[in-house]
Amino acid sequence: MNTKLLFLGMLLAPGLALAGTPINETRSVDAGARIDISNVKGSVTVSAWDKNEVGITGSLGEGAKRLAIEGGGGSLSVRVEGPDRKGMLSWGSDSSMQETILNLKVPRGASLEVGVVSAEVAVSELSGGQVQVDSVSGRIRVSAVNSPRLRLESVSGDVEFDGKAEDSSIETVSGDVTARGVSGRTRLETVSGKLQIVASAPLKQTEASSVSGDIEISGGLDKGGRIEIETMSGDVRLGLPGNLSASIEAESFSGTLRSDFGTVQKPEHGPGSSLRVKVGDGDGEISLDSFSGDVTIRRE
Known about the structure:
This is DUF4097 domain-containing protein. Helix content is 0%, strand content 59%.
C-alpha cells in the first residue's frame, strides 16, 4: 500500500495561521481547482458549495508551527506544519501537537487530495472532480460524492463510501471498508478488515481481496462484466440477482462452499469443494477463490 503523508514543502510566509488561534480564511479558486489538504492529528471536514472560493474555519492545535495556505486559481494547498524537526521522517516531535480542526468549503466541481496521520476525514457533496484520501489511523467517510476517480487508503482506520464513482480503489490494512453506490471499475483490498460492497448499478469490473477479513458483495453484473474475489481465511458472501447471466467458478480448499446456482462438487477423498456453472447466457464472469474460508453464493 502506498499511503502518502503530505507534510513536506517550503515554508512560505503568506497565508498562515499561528498555533492556538481560530482559523477563518477565504481564498478565490477556479471552479475545477485542485485542493490539497494535510493534517497531522485532529479532523478534516470538506463539503461543497456553489462558490469559486475555499472557506477555511476551525482551530489550529497547540504545538503546530502554522497553517500554511498557498496558491490560488487552479491549485490551492492547505497544510498544517508541525514543529521543526531534524530529519524528513522524524515524527517524534509531532507527538506534542494538539488536535487541529479543519473545516473547508470548496467548489462543488473541485478535485480533492487529503493526507492525514491521526485525523478523521469526512468529505461530502463533491461532484465531477477526483477524490483521494490517505490516512494512517483516522476514519475516512465519503458521502454524497460523484467522482470519476476515487482513491481511499487507510492503515488502521475504517473507510466508508456512499456515492457514485466510475473508477474506485479502497485499501486498508486492518480497517473495515463499506462501499455503497459503486458500479464501474472497483478494487477493494484489506489484510484483516471486513469488506462490504452494495452496488447501485450493475458492476462492470470488481476485484476484492483479503487475507483474513470477510468479504460481502451484493449487486448485479453488467453484460461482459467481471467479479473476482480472493481470500485466504476470510469468509465470502456473494448476493446475485435471479436474472444473472454469467459463468461462475468458485473454489475453497478447506472451507464450506454453498451456492444457489449450479451444483457444488466435492472430491471423493480429501478436503475442498468447487463450482463451475453457466447461468443464463453466461455474458459475465465471476471467480471466487478461498483457501480456508467459507464461500456462500446466494440468489437475491
